[in-house]
Input
Amino acid sequence: MNHSLMLAAAIAACAWLAPAAGQTIYRCGDSYSQRPCPDAKAVPAEDPRTAAQRRESIQATERDAQAAQKMEQARLKEEARAARAPADAAPAAAPEEKPPIARRKKPPRSKAQAKGKKAKAESKAENKIGIDAKAKAPKKG
Output
């Protein structure tokens, strides 16, 4: 089976790499076709790579196919091993519950900070009283 897979990959690579002799490709807007359309432009379809470059591409395709097959075999073995494991085996240990995160308390304020905050609150209260007093005061005039 391994040999047939590699052979199929090599044949596909050869078919893709070598365009048919005398084949003309046409560009019709954003698509390509073997049949010309109105205002079609002929596009060269030759493979500009050397024979060595094409050979290297085929070899890389074969290496990739072999690596893929080895990975599939390893996966199938692992799945079979997992299926053979006793179903009543001890389930994986549940993760431990973590204790709640202790929140850090704010450090106590210095006297200057406390005094500044108190002064700011008093200033706001005075402003509010002043505004209220102005609003309630009778108008002169």
Summary: The mean pLDDT is 75. The helical segments are 2-17, 51-84, 111-136.
